[in-house]
Amino acid sequence: MEIRKPKIKSLPYNEFNDNEYIEELRKNGVGIITGVLDEMINWGRSNSVWPLTFATSCCGIEFMAIGAARYDFARFGFEVTRASPRQADVIMVAGTIVTKMAPVLYRLYEQMADPKYVIAVGNCAVSGGPFTNSYHVVQGVDKILPVDVFIPGCPPRPEALLYGMMQLQRKIKVEPFLGGVNKKEPKSHRFPAINPGEEPIFAEKYHQTPISQAGSKAE
Amino acid sequence: MSSLKALIQTICPEAVFSNEETGTLQVELSPKELSGLLKPLRNQQDLLFDYLEDLIGMDFGEKLGVIYRLYSTVNGHRIILVCQAANREKPELPSMTPYWAIANFYEREVFDFFGIHFVGHPDMRRLFLRNDWTGYPLRKDYDTSPEANPVKLDAEPLSDISPAVVEKSDGEVVEEDHALFEKDEYVVNIGPQHPATHGVLHFQVSLEGETVKKVDVHCGYIHRGIEKMCESLTYPQTLGYTDRLDYLSAHQNRHALCACIEEAMGLEIPRRAQYIRALMDELSRIQSHLLFYATYCMDLGALTPFFYGFRDREKILDIFEDTTGGRLIQNYYVIGGVSRDLHRDFVKKTAEFIKYLPTVLPEYHKVFTGNVIFRQRAQGIGILTREQAISHGATGPTARASNWSCDVRKHQPYSVYNEVEFKEILKTGGDCFDRYMARMEEIHESIAIIDQLLTKLPDGDYCAKTKPIIKLPEGRYFKSVETARGEFGVFIESRGDKYPYRLKFHPPCLPLVTLVDLLARNNKIADLISIGASLDYVVPDIDR
Ligand code: SF4
What we know:
The complex is a heterodimer of chains A (219) and B (544). With 219 residues, chain A is mainly alpha-helical. Chain A contains ten helices and three strands; from the N terminus they run ααααβαβαβαααα. Chain A has helices at residues 13-17, 20-26, 34-46, 58-67, 102-111, 122-127, 158-174, 177-181, 187-190, 205-208; strands spanning 90-94, 117-121, 149-151. A three-stranded parallel sheet of chain A has the order 1-2-3. In chain A, helix 3 runs antiparallel to helix 7. The longest helix of chain A has 17 residues, at 158-174. Chain A is globular. Chain B is α+β, with helices and mostly antiparallel strands. Chain B is built from 17 helices and 17 strands. Chain B has helices at residues 2-11, 31-43, 103-114, 226-230, 235-243, 250-265, 271-299, 304-324, 346-369, 372-378, 386-391, 396-400, 408-411, 432-456, 509-520, 525-535, 539-543; strands at residues 16-18, 25-29, 51-59, 64-71, 78-84, 92-94, 117-119, 161-167, 173-179, 186-190, 202-208, 211-218, 333-334, 337-338, 475-483, 486-494, 502-506. In chain B, the strands form six sheets. Chain B has a five-stranded mixed sheet with strand order 1-2-5-4-3. Chain B has a three-stranded antiparallel sheet with strand order 10-11-12. At the A-B interface, helix 4 and helix 5 of A face helix 4 and helix 8 of B. Iron/sulfur cluster binds next to helix 4 and helix 6 of chain A.
């Protein structure tokens, strides 16, 4: 039985529901008491998703373009981009992630406050894109971060970016908040095994080594 | 040229000369001869090579070495030096850093990719890859498998100690450590994730109060290994990567590579294609300068210009999109011409646009250029002299703001640039404000060029026929074009295959980023932002 019928402006309800992943999110059901409250909170959350100002290469220019007047993502609640990860809700990984950048990106993600989301923008972030054969390119950010939405394209059109961002809003709308994302989940939950059979490199191992001094002076 | 040969022969009697009749003189010499030649090459009046155009690391197969391209802005001659290190195990070459400032970064790049040590280099660290990287990727015997260098999630160990390569009096070459920063220096990190670095660049800034004492630039956060990948791709396949280097000059970069391959093949391209290319190049120059305006103003805290710049940039992107199907990355030029003809609305829309833009530019200046805060943050800040610009190899509007006439369109005209009239914008101040104004005035020149091209646009084919498999005859080929940021060069070494043996891009932005340290010293930390933004570098172009 469906209790809630969340929807997003400019995304027809049928289309909204047409996604296997939605079922997975709803599996746990909705709390009777918290359901309505959840919905209200999620309504607020999904309409004020603040992205981090983060771009490494070409796709970043399209990311800037949707911030400008013509595409203007503020219309959808992606109001302001934040330069500090502490204040951001979503990191849009726009551009190629290379080996040297990977620890920096991972640290940025760690610095963001929960609940946090990741959007992989462009082929490079999805899979390494045109550079997938390179010796220095990470073959998709899903190797290091749990990705919520993938936006393919090289670069994706601004419309595609907006669509991808709406998909994220949808995800936020269906998620149970109270007792769900507001509780810090164990790490394994947040990292779905994306490549079956493959050990994710963000395994616990990372946390055993002390966080060394990226970008600061080592003695 | 023969006199040049005679001059060099007197200094290095054993040098081997080639390519005398056609093109640029090539000289092959041993490392020992090279180290003796450097000083006269730089200082002797009749040689006076003051501009190191490029320094290309090479794996010649048996030996490693470097190809140097030098140019004299005074005498107007050019020379190519080829020097191979004695062995592969411990390759050593003399360093050029005492004579050309830019050699510092170029040699670090070669060290990073080929493991060649430059004797006399003060700071022999890797430039792009992590310090703990194993192997030298551009060597032919490099193991590219991901297992050799897995993705690590622990941060890169950074050290304050840097090795200098010095030659002892008994001829032995050793590495001597010296400190980059002293123990009591106050060092602040800016980047790699910082909005003002325009991408993923990392500055270690040593401060004294608010005054910058030194900036150490770390690159490589977007090093994608394009040059290595190109070695296993056919020539038409390599084209795609040029768009993704400096994506704001996508067309121009691709122009350089296409033209280089066409010249090597001896392929004549149709007039219409040449006109189309020049048109697209100039349109991208305008959109790049508009984006510069938008971001520079935003970095200095003005948000309205950001919207202005993007508003008008979108109009150009629309024009691109009609014809090429892409907004940012267009993949439009192909070997022999362009991939499809202009859209039927192209001429109309472009003509409208170049009429429209001059009407809004005064508005740009009204909201920003006259602003007293901007003036104070730009005028007299970060002054670059002409000599520094040449020695650091800076090109493009940055160098022209320092009164160095270096526009490739004027000095080595390619495409149809010798058929149109335009001014090369030169300024004399060399400060942030002049760099800004140089770009803004270049927009007008580009408009003038487009106007002339549109009226002359010939009919006919837009692409020459090429063989399905393109092979270049053996040899070395160079080509450079003027992008929005400066001289973008392509070097191809062909061994007669359908793959390039070595493909090197000369990025205009790498020299620009070396200027940050020079210009920011003894300025305030807030000026660092203004200086960085006025140089207008694009980070993926630096790192390739
Ligand atoms: S997906 Fe394409 S446009 Fe985006 S960063 Fe990668 S190469 Fe650039």
